[in-house]
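On to my pick:
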Amino acid sequence: MDPEKMMTGISNEILTSIKEMEKAKTAEEKLTHSKIIKNLCESLEVFFNLMGDMDLYDDDEYDNGPTPF
C-alpha cells in the first residue's frame, strides 16, 4: 500500500477520533478515545521517523558525483 495514503488515512482517523472524543459523555469513553488517538499518533510517528531516516541517505552530493572545486 502507498505510504502517503496510509499516512492520510491515519491522520483522518485521528481527526475522527478527536471529534468522537469531544462527544463522549463518560470518562471511560473519553479514556477509550484517548487511547485510540495515542495509538494512531504512534503509528503516524513511525512514518515520520522513516522519512527522517531516509533524508539521511538522500544527499545530492552522492547522487551527482563529487563536487567540483
Observations:
- Residues 6 and 66 are 37 Å apart (CA to CA).
- Residues 3-58 form one domain.
- The chain has three helices and no strands.
- The chain has one domain: 3-58.
